[in-house]
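Input (structure):
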């Protein structure tokens, strides 16, 4: 990629000039794909590929979408409801359905080598237990994974619970994106950068920001269409919001966004890539949007508004990664 010609000029009235120059460089020199979906971390791809072929009712991409929805590929995830691990098994379900996938003599819900094969097996079990229920078999299988097969039988299909309905639709949509490794187009990356640059000066707010631009506790959009003030953004809320303006859905947390992205080599870094900070994939705590020439747009921390900063402004730069999808069975 040719280096951007616009020099770093600071934040404020000159920020738009900087961003415009960097975006123009991106448009001229970078072509980074077509779409976005589930990207399986390299260490789990073989596990998902194998477990996704446990029975005809599931596929590797469906299983990948389910795990992304459940935990964002976080093997230590724990929910308020008591679900555990990368596939979010409740203890009672794990006791009855967990398997020793790596045959080390221990069934460990926090070990992906056990939990991912167990998720494939359990999905197949749910498909069998709901095979006579009217409606879409895949939807019923996923609903059973989320709410239990008893609820699917009770309601003769997907239970009328908002959480379950959203769960089924989200996984189905992620699993059906066309085959091929793809990423945001140059135009989409530019749209995301411009959306983020428009928020320069917006206050930091822990938990702030979602796909519509709404901040936690405040239902509004950045243009104030609801008539309410924006509370602000946290780091991953800003990146989530910016890419949503380009029609691309990112997971909520920085760690989940890393799991949904593909690391790029330093020489291949392009505007629109995401910049991650932490000591490991499991400890990622911050993310920004790369805009070129070693700079990013970020929502840094409480008391500091959305700004342009050097990607080296924090000591624990972990990786630069691009949201990509390994679709269908090409995980």
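Output (sequence):
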């Amino acid at each position: 990629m040719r280096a951007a010609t616009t020099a770093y000029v600071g934040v404020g009235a000159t920020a738009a000039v900087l961003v415009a120059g960097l975006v123009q460089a991106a448009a001229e020199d970078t072509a980074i794909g077509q779409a976005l979906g589930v990207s399986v971390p390299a260490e789990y791809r073989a596990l998902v590929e194998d477990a996704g072929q446990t029975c005809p009712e599931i596929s590797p991409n469906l299983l990948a979408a389910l795990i992304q929805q459940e935990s964002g590929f976080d093997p230590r995830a724990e929910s308020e409801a008591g679900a555990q691990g990368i596939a979010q098994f409740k203890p009672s379900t794990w006791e009855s359905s967990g398997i020793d996938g790596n045959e080390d003599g221990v069934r460990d819900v926090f070990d992906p080598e056990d939990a991912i094969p167990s998720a494939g097996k359990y999905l197949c079990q749910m498909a069998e237990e709901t095979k006579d229920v009217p409606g879409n078999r895949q939807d019923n299988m996923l609903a059973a994974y989320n709410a239990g097969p008893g609820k699917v039988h009770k309601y003769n299909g997907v239970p009328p619970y908002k959480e379950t309905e959203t769960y089924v639709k989200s996984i189905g949509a992620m699993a059906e994106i066309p085959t091929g490794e793809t990423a945001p187009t140059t135009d989409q990356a530019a749209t995301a950068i411009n959306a983020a640059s428009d928020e320069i000066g917006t206050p930091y707010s822990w938990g702030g920001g979602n796909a519509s631009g709404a901040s936690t506790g405040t239902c509004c959009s950045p243009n104030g269409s609801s008539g309410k003030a924006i509370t602000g953004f946290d780091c991953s809320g800003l990146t989530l919001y910016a890419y949503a303006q380009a029609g691309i859905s990112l997971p909520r947390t920085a760690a989940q966004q890393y799991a949904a992205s593909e690391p790029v080599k330093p020489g291949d870094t392009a505007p629109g890539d995401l910049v991650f900070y932490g000591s490991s994939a499991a400890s990622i705590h911050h993310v920004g949007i790369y805009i070129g020439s070693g700079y990013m747009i970020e929502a840094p921390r409480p008391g500091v508004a959305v700004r342009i900063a050097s990607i080296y402004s924090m000591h624990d730069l972990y990786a630069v990664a691009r949201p990509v999808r390994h679709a269908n069975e090409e995980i």
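Notes: The longest helix spans residues 112-129. Strands lie at 181-182, 261-263, 274-277, 286-292, 295-298, 307-310, 317-323, 325-326.
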